[in-house]
Every structure is written in structure tokens, then in C-alpha cells.
Design a protein that fits this description.
By secondary structure, this protein is mainly alpha-helical. It has three helices and no strands. Helix 1 crosses helix 2 and helix 1 packs across helix 3.
């Protein structure tokens, strides 16, 4: 898994885009007290459910792999 350039910024952008996506769909309302890890996992599962991104094999799902996958997704958004 090759790290993206500025991956931390892409992860932050992925959280913002994912929160906006989920709230527009009306399936989630994030609270200010929700942790970044919780938001990332929810966004990942939602995008996989909606077939926006390819799922990781279940034995490879970890916080780090979710962050990487969502950073790649965010980097490809307009």
C-alpha cells in the first residue's frame, strides 16, 4: 500500500465529503462528539454499500486501510 502525497489532508477531505454525502442521502447525522475513526468507518461502509468504492477484503479492513482507501477516493473527487 503506497502512501499518497499529503494523505492526511486527503483523509480530512474524505471525512468532509463523506459527511456531506451521507447527510444529503439522509441516512446519517453526525454529532460533533463522533470520533474521526467512527466517521471514517461509517463513510467507508456507506460508500461500499452504495457501490461507490470497491470493498476491501474483510480480513484487511483496518483503520489504516480505511483511511488510505478513502484518501484515494477523495483525491479523485472533483
Amino acid at each position: 500500500m503506497k502512501k499518497l502525497k499529503n494523505e492526511k489532508e486527503w483523509v480530512k477531505k474524505a471525512i468532509a465529503l463523506g459527511m456531506e454525502y451521507g447527510e444529503k442521502r439522509g441516512v446519517v447525522e453526525f454529532e460533533p462528539t463522533d470520533s474521526a475513526a467512527l466517521k471514517l468507518e461509517y463513510i467507508y461502509r456507506l460508500l461500499v454499500h452504495d457501490k461507490v468504492i470497491q470493498p476491501l477484503p474483510e480480513d484487511q479492513v483496518s483503520q489504516q486501510s480505511i483511511q488510505h482507501k478513502l484518501a484515494i477516493w477523495a483525491s479523485k473527487q472533483p
